[in-house]
Every structure is written in structure tokens, then in C-alpha cells.
Amino acid sequence: MAKVDILNDPNGQFNSYMIYCPGCKRYHAFDSRWNFNGNFEKPTFTPSMLVFQSRPERRCHSFITDGKIIFLSDCYHELAGKTVVLEDIE
Question: Most exposed of 21, 32, 44, 66 (fewest Cβ within 10 Å)?
């Protein structure tokens, strides 16, 4: 199974890539602002993903590298500072 899924707009055109975040327990989307290595099993996106930057109580900040999500210490959840393998998207 893949760790990344493709989201298309209502017209079927590419919109973004999606990964499941086990820290937030929700999906995060990477659009064309990020570089993607094209590997759906061991994805790498650059630069980092920062979700809810202005809301520290919900902030999630991470790097996706070689199929792993590296959570930075400014995340609100229990995975802050940890690295975990991305989950498969069904």
C-alpha cells in the first residue's frame, strides 16, 4: 500500500498529495509549493510541513523523509520530537 495519495479537484485535475499524520490523527496535504520525490512508498517532501503555525495548541511541524515523518519539538501532540514510519493510506 502507498503512504501518499493524490487529491484531485472536482474537474479531475491534480490538487495535492495527502499523507496521514498519526500525531494529529488527520490528513495533511502537500500542494505544488512542496517538492516531492515521486516515491509513494518512501516519500520525501521538502521543505517541512507546518500546520496551524499561529495556533500553538494545534501546531504540527514535521519533515517527511524516506517514508518517515520526523516531528519537530514545537508540535502540540505526544509525537513531538519523535520519528515514525508513515502509515499506509487505504
Answer: 32
- The b/e string for 43-52 (b: 16+ C-beta within 10 A; e otherwise) is bbbeeebebe
Paired strand residues for 20: 27
Q: In the numeric block, which cell numbers belong to residue 1?
A: 500500500
Residue 11, sorted as left (phi over 0), alpha (psi -120 to 50) or beta, turns out to be alpha
3-state secondary structure of 49: strand
Q: What is the rounded distance in angstroms from the CA atom of residue 56 to the CA atom of residue 21?
A: 17
Model-level pTM?
Answer: 0.89
Per-position b or e across 71-82, b if 16+ CB within 10 A of its CB: bbeebbeebbee
Give the bridge partners for 16, in sequence order: 7
